[in-house]
Amino acid sequence: MPELASDLSFSKKIQKVKASGIRIFDNKVSTIPGIIKLTLGEPDMNTPEHVKQAAIKSIQDNDSHYAPQKGKLELRKAISKYLKQTTGIDYDPETEVVVTVGATEAINAALFALSNPGDKVAIPTPVFSLYWPVATLADADYVLMNTASDDFKLTPEKLEETIKQNPTIKAVILNYPTNPTGVEYTEDEIKALAKTIKECHLYVITDEIYSTLTYGVKHFSIASLIPERAIYISGLSKSHAMTGYRLGYVAGPAKIMAQIGKVHGLMVTTTTDSSQAAAIEALEHGLEDPEKYRAVYRKRRDFVLKQLAEMGMQAVKPEGAFYIFAKIPSKYGKDDMQFALDLAFKEKVGITPGSAFGPGGEGYVRMSYASSDENLRKAMKRIKKFLQEDK
């Protein structure tokens, strides 16, 4: 195997960026024989059949050439129509929508497009651990705001205080329903945040990838209130169990979208034809598909919450997404990594340490209930056994 020549070096910035704590832990425990993994946020259900058939037909029809850089116009029109229904905003499919390789690429393109060296991005935590490494890559600094004392929600007061201490903040990132807590914001809470964001002259990058998966509450997009400041990000990975299709999108005002589209083109050229065909089908004929998934997830959520309560583990009751954020036993203090490792190696259940999601996650673990009923039943039995033997 070749070794890098001793007279060559590589990016110091990249070297400083840490890999995802979620993936690092998942890799550690994935080799344990017989482990039940509740680590990754991936639906265990299959993509709807009619959506799969649209992708197959695309391949059979030799739809195998470069698509328009911003995505097929038919798909951008479908996204625009969908966002009109869900947010009330008329996004021009020609100039205000870009189709991306998953929401991950949308986040990258957005942060690269708006950031100048010295700009700061405010990120409420605990949250999906992608945002701050990407901010670093985009030459922006970041400020992590611990929301644990506010029921894991960003308040206007916390945001205002952070901005006073960091006057070069240019944007705030929201992700809700939130990964890892499943917390959803009310309409009034979003209105209060929107007011502060406007008064403080900020962008809001709003990642609403879980917006179709809420339980007993209606999702309300902040983009509907301040569309002139909002960069709206979503996709079909969670709503239609299409993680492997890598299909996301970003929408916003034309001026910033021109820059986002430019970055997108330089990063990936365009997204895959067959994935776009599947997305068109999902948005035009599959808007009811998430209902089936939501019913299954809600049942699983209630089961896991009940089991954990009986074990004495406190957990945040999620109103969206498909995660449980649970407090670890007091004997571990805030060492969620040790708790998760002990559980994985002693009872073969993989869950993610809360510290992987930033400040406020310490002392918690995330469990994904996007797993089969059988796996969840087995996992709960194993966790119960572990807690009884570990007293």
TrEMBL record:
<dbReference type="InterPro" id="IPR015422">
    <property type="entry name" value="PyrdxlP-dep_Trfase_small"/>
</dbReference>
<dbReference type="InterPro" id="IPR050596">
    <property type="entry name" value="AspAT/PAT-like"/>
</dbReference>
<dbReference type="InterPro" id="IPR004839">
    <property type="entry name" value="Aminotransferase_I/II_large"/>
</dbReference>
<dbReference type="GO" id="GO:0008483">
    <property type="term" value="F:transaminase activity"/>
</dbReference>
<dbReference type="InterPro" id="IPR004838">
    <property type="entry name" value="NHTrfase_class1_PyrdxlP-BS"/>
</dbReference>
<keyword id="KW-0032">Aminotransferase</keyword>
<dbReference type="InterPro" id="IPR015421">
    <property type="entry name" value="PyrdxlP-dep_Trfase_major"/>
</dbReference>
<feature type="domain" description="Aminotransferase class I/classII large">
    <location>
        <begin position="35"/>
        <end position="383"/>
    </location>
</feature>
<dbReference type="GO" id="GO:0030170">
    <property type="term" value="F:pyridoxal phosphate binding"/>
</dbReference>
<keyword id="KW-0808">Transferase</keyword>
<dbReference type="GO" id="GO:0006520">
    <property type="term" value="P:amino acid metabolic process"/>
</dbReference>
<dbReference type="Pfam" id="PF00155">
    <property type="entry name" value="Aminotran_1_2"/>
</dbReference>
<protein>
    <recommendedName>
        <fullName>Aminotransferase</fullName>
        <ecNumber>2.6.1.-</ecNumber>
    </recommendedName>
</protein>
<dbReference type="InterPro" id="IPR015424">
    <property type="entry name" value="PyrdxlP-dep_Trfase"/>
</dbReference>
<keyword id="KW-0663">Pyridoxal phosphate</keyword>
<comment type="similarity">
    <text>Belongs to the class-I pyridoxal-phosphate-dependent aminotransferase family.</text>
</comment>
